[in-house]
Amino acid sequence: MEQKWQESWQDNxxxxxxxxxxxxxxxxxxxxxxxxxxxxxxHIYNHTWIDIAARYKRMRGFEVYFPQGFDCHGLPxxxxxxxxxxxxxxxxxxxxxxxxxxxxxxxKRMKKQFNDIGYSADWSLTYRTMDEDYKKLIQExxxxxxxxxxxxxAKHPVLWCPRCGTALAKAEVGHIEKEGxxxxxxxxxxxxxxxxxxxxxxxxxxxxxxxVHPGDERYQKFIGKKAMLPVYEREVPxxxxxxxxxDFGTGVVYICTFGDEQxxxxxKKYNLPVIEAIDSRGCMTAVAGKYAGLSIEEARRKISxxxxxxxxxxxxxxxxxxVLSHTERSNCKTPIELLPMxxxxxxxxxxxxxxxxxxxxxxxxxPFMLQRMVxxxxxxxWDWIISRxxxxxxxxxxWVCECGQIMSAEDLGLELPVxxxxxxxxxxxxxxxxxxxxxxxxxCWIDSSVTPLVIAKWQRDDELFKRAYPASxxxxxxxIIRTWAFYTIYRCMxxxxxxxxxxxxVNGMVAGPDGRKMSKSLGNIIEPExxxxxxxxxxxxQWAAGGTLGDDYPFSWEECDHSQRFLIKLWNISRxxxxxxxxxxxxxxxxxxxxxxxxxxxxxxLIGDCTRNLDSYVYNIPLTDIRSFIWHDLADNYLEMVKxxxxxxxxxxxxxxxxAQYTLNRVLETILLLLSPFTPHISxxxxxxxxxxxxxxxxxxxxxxxxxxxxxxxxxDLLVELVSEIRRYKSDNKLSLGAELELLEVQADNKVxxxxxxxxxxxxxxxxxxxxxxKVSDKVDGFELEIR
RNA sequence: GGGCUCGUGGUCUAGUCGGCUAUGACGUUGCCCUUACAAGGCAAAGGUCCCCGGUUCAAGUCCGGGCGGGCCCACCA
Length: 788
Fold this sequence. Notes:
Elements: H1 2-11, E1 25-27, H2 41-59, E2 63-65, H3 75-84, H4 92-116, H5 132-147, E3 151-161, E4 166-168, E5 173-189, E6 192-198, E7 207-212, E8 226-229, E9 234-240, E10 252-256, H6 261-269, H7 296-309, E11 313-326, E12 337-346, H8 352-361, E13 363-365, H9 369-378, E14 384-385, E15 387-388, E16 398-401, E17 406-408, E18 424-425, E19 435-437, E20 441-442, H10 444-448, H11 451-455, H12 462-468, E21 471-477, H13 481-496, E22 501-507, E23 510-511, H14 529-534, H15 537-545, E24 553-554, H16 557-580, H17 594-615, H18 620-647, H19 649-652, H20 654-675, H21 680-690, H22 710-732, E25 741-748, H23 750-756, H24 760-767, E26 769-776, E27 783-787
Parallel strand pairs: 1-2, 7-9, 13-22, 21-22, 23-24, 25-26
Antiparallel strand pairs: 3-4, 3-12, 5-6, 5-8, 5-11, 7-10, 8-9, 12-14, 15-20, 16-17, 16-19, 18-19, 25-27
Helix pairs in contact: 2-15, 3-4, 8-9, 8-13, 9-13, 15-16, 16-18, 17-18, 17-20, 17-22, 18-20, 18-24, 20-21, 22-24
This protein binds one RNA strand through strand 5, strand 6, strand 10, strand 11 and helix 9.
């Protein structure tokens, strides 16, 4: 029946945002998944949390603003279109339309998957980063950054992926540990051998200096001299610098433009020339002489062979080291080169303190995740390279003339969005028709890092913006704190002067059933189709709710089994209750018994605990508590202890039966409400047949303090304990639980005896006892039983 | 190397402000069809709470040190 409810929710627009309701808006800045064509378990996990939050807040009386967008641009789509549809990038317009078409289909599939788990987003609010409106807004923000002087174009060594043929941001690269070689190469220096150690001999043509530590006695004498490079017969200065590690390799390092970030720092510090030895395809340039045109790996092999042959190599040792590689949002893993290139940048370095301040204003769940943001921000030493040499992306709205003049779409009086690629304009400076539209597109994070503005309709709908910005909640995984969270906080702060969200809910990653990170090589990947085929959505949702804030969480078939069994149990409980509520009429005067007060008191505690936890985005504990209450307190104990009152009105009286009905009705009503955010389908199904109306739009239950009676808790617990003793006796004596007992004699102290006064009837009936005797005795502590 | 985080029966897990016999699930074993449910119920076995030290009347919990995972960052050219 889940599909029935999903369709009903969608068709009747049950969860549509209503700006007229007058309720306080609770807006959710949901993560737009990349449109790969399918959701993975991580999405199921994360978005179930989001949906629980949305459903809970709705029941708490908020007007929940719950859009779901899609992040469309990206290299994987380009690669798929090239391969599957055999369309070439060079045919730009066709290529882009094919990418868009492919993405449309992907979104359709992914949207269905969202609906399959009972996702309560308002699909009329969906945004897609490839839409014209969306690109328009992105370009507006870029122009604003340009006007503020934060967006600039410059030639600078950039992180370059030779395989993907594009510049990358720091956040897109990481280190991969690899087995490499450390080459010890002799250089000639005033009649002596000076031996450098390097992992990259192919960088030799770009060598512009040799460095030693100024305190290193072995090499002090060389400082200020010139060293002769083998093969190239070129002299470079020998310099002394504190940053050289005397213990690594030979303690002599050669600096090349550019081998790593340290080279950039040294080149700047000593004002050394820049030699570009590697081109954008990852091949050696003309300066490499006889190695020109070779790939990096070929050149490395070749030059090391030549150096060995000529006797310049003293030693080659194996070395495990980390290689900067293209690791994020791509399975490319190609080593990164640092190439000086004209690129577009956004100045972040001058705003890092503001980002830290803004991040600190956000309430982080769990709080320690703030530290990750602070660490990342404080370690940031590069501006953000936003240009990508790709095709399917948001174009950068500028024209650059050969003379160096830059003109924005605004300068040209053009309406956004624009696609300047291939467009040539007259330069406003030199008046030549040589201003070419920028051929690059934006980094995907440029698209996605203004989602709080997009959803709140920034500069489009001031009324909505006032109510929906800052977003109430930003849910996301910890792996994109340094990207999505960082960039969003930064850009929205620049654009609005405000921190863009109030609460930041951080989830961990979904691990495989073996507890290890899901990966192809471990063969432990679970696709959502698999569990969704076997279990229903309310089951998967319970699994997802079991995760803890910020922690990685394994997928578990056992947990699904248990969750599924719980649903069946709940179904049977409600069937039982429904059966006994057929003739129940609400509103008559009710005289509750001790056991009734007991279950109702426990229910009040449950409501309080659940509310407290859900308010701080903790889901695993309340779900466990609710399930335990239903299974054990309600089903195992309460139901068994009131059956006699329900079935035998002629013995126990009409009032007693009515009190039990009243209690059952109230308990069932409340637990369905508590469960609704977690298991909306079954809650709705039972609710609709028993109570009418829409469970998930009802008010969240409030604690009734009058029912929170300590004495009722104590009395009920005593009854549970006694019943448990009787069950143990029957179990030990291989009797069925329905077997009648001749005698139960309770020796009780005064305290227990007085508690038992209101429980005798229930004890006798539940235990099937013919003769119940209670004797007050000061010899016992609590109670002692004699059973026959 | 730095930061964060975790370590609880065979496996996973709860444990707030230190407080009685350490929670629950899965699995295992025995028994039982209880006028909702055998996809159930009742019960049993199973623990040096990673180790060492400290604070305290009292430590799984707080502090210090160590060991071992995980994640992030930085790197060694």
